[in-house]
Amino acid sequence: MIYPWIWARLPGRFLGKLATAVLLVIVVLAVLWFAVFPMAEALLGLDEVTVGP
């Protein structure tokens, strides 16, 4: 139900709403890729591999 709420509040007609929605998705993905995922990787320690006896 959140997506119709967001769509109704985007400005413009269909093409304007579509362009704004695509831009919002790109911004969210960029923030995740460049800020959230590197922070999570540092906290989780995914590069610390222990293999062997």
TrEMBL record:
Keywords: Membrane, Transmembrane, Transmembrane helix. The chain crosses the membrane at residues 21-40. The keyword Transmembrane helix applies. It comes from the Bacteria. This is Uncharacterized protein. It comes from Planotetraspora silvatica.
